[in-house]
Amino acid sequence: MGYKVEKTDEQWREELTDEEYRVLREAGTERAFTGEYTDTKTVGVYNCRACGAELFRSETKFESHCGWPSFYDPADSDAVETRTDTSLPGRPRTEVLCAACGSHLGHVFEGEGYGTPTDLRYCINSIAIRHVEGA
Ligand SMILES: [Zn+2]
Predict the structure, then answer these.
(1) Is 2 among the domain residues?
(2) pTM value?
């Protein structure tokens, strides 16, 4: 399946830092409570750090206390895509990817009782997104 933004592995390695590459292109996870946007409340949008596509807005960011930026809905339902991730034995998770470039963003969890409008928690790596104030 093709993405709107397609780059070779070499290009991604050139454009991203090692840690960005590890998360975005190799589905890594930053350590909990270490990301720069975990507690950010500033109004604005969050774009994909790999391709710049708008993914989330500050209005849907909520305090989950899980250690990663958490959103209850994407900015646009077409902005992200999901697929089943079975990398942890016995516990399938739903992986969240940028719909424009296919980069890994994090995972989405359902029914945790956070009391948000969707009952979803998009658990996103800070390093996979870039905050743009006030947009
Ligand atoms: Zn992207």
Answers:
(1) no
(2) 0.95
Domain extent for 106 = 9-133
Any domain includes 3: no
Q: Is 66 designated active site? A: no
pLDDT tens, position by position, 95-107 = 999 999 999 999 9
Residues of the chain with pLDDT under 50: none
Q: Which of 48, 51, 98, 123 is catalytic?
A: 123
Q: What is the DSSP string of 23-66?
A: HHTT---PPTT-STTTT---SEEEEETTT--EEEEGGGEE---S
* Structural domain count, the chain: 1
